[in-house]
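A quick aside before the break. I want you to see a complete sequence-to-structure record at least once, exactly as it would be stored in a machine-readable document. Don't worry about memorizing anything.
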Amino acid sequence: MKTSQFLSIAAACLLFTTLYSCKSNNTENAVENKTDISADKLSQIKSLGFSTDNVRKIDEGYLVEGDILLTDDNLTEPSAGANLNIAETEQYRTTNVVKSLPRVVTVSVTNLPQVYSDAVNTMISRYNSLGLRLTFQRASAGAKGNIDIVGFNEGPSGGFITLGSSGFPTSSGAPYSQVKMNTNAAAYGTNPNLLYLASVLQHEVGHCIGFRHTDYMNRAFSCGSSGAGNEGASNIGAVRIPGTPSAPDAASFMLACSNGGNRTFNANDVIAINYLYK
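That is the input. The structure line, written in tokens, reads:
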């Protein structure tokens, strides 16, 4: 996820936060030149229903839409044949979701300051308060959880800064195994706000269990810049969730860009989560 737009250095790394856990004004991650990504890879990314604007090559794969990691396996995985609805305004899930319900997903925190650990506990309590068949708990001390929260340090670039990133469930039905949170002071300041961190974690874990951005149809809605619009057919994502609104939802926890503060589940988010995991 990204924040909206990065202010001047004199502002001590204050952010216009419009993206939630993925991007800032355009995408959560810093803008990077795509010349090192082959045309074939860009075509595969587009075919999965993701924007190729500001796509970044990272060690684990390709970072798209500011906070979503696509691995090489994601790019070649065949469609499961789900009915896909592209570029409408309801909420969306990916083709893969977490299976074998009821299920407890363990969460660990590796080498991060205490406030990140406290924010993970807040995130877990928010999900568990919904009474889902998918629940979360902290992993045993010293053990790596099904989802491991780790840090990275990256400053702003191209007017944006990455707040965090994660991926989607595997084809076998396991949640994505890692959330990366930015420890750079430009992301959350030198004294990070617990509820803000919890909100970004909540968003990134939403990706881990299969949620796309609510404003998938046009990320300009939350990010404020020109949107990518219809991104085309997809194997991985954009399966519309019945019962979610047919107009943009300004408060959803899965908006592409953060508002810079505390954003938890709204009523429409609960409908979407209940549809998958209640």
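Two observations worth writing down. Residues 4-35, 81-89, 227-233 have pLDDT under 50 and may be disordered. Residues 5-277 form a domain with the Collagenase (Catalytic Domain) fold (CATH 3.40.390.10). We'll return to this after the break.
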